[in-house]
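Support reply, case 0932

Customer input (verbatim):
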Amino acid sequence: MDAIVIEVPDMNDSVSRITLLGTQYQIRFTYNDTGGYWYFGLYDSLGNPIRIGVKIVPQFPLNLFWGTNQMPLGVFGVLTELDSVGRNDFVEGKAKFIFIPA
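Our regenerated output:
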């Protein structure tokens, strides 16, 4: 399994550029302080939404139930031993956001 680790910035809301399988995307990570959870969105290189508002839960393929021709072929997920991912868990190395190519 060759997983690509995608860094989650130490910010409550951020947009980063990433390249997956030779295609550029933008990925947005947002922490919901009220609910105590993270969610992410994937955009094309111009910022057009592909999928937004996906709640990040550990040990589950986050794009299992959706896919489009615009999506990179693979699975997004979070590797951790925690039951839920808190605000500082990515920064402290307790959780890793990953993409596993198909």
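We compared this against your earlier run and they match. Two observations from our side: The chain has one domain: 4-101. Residues 4-101 form one domain. Please reopen the case if you see a mismatch on your end.
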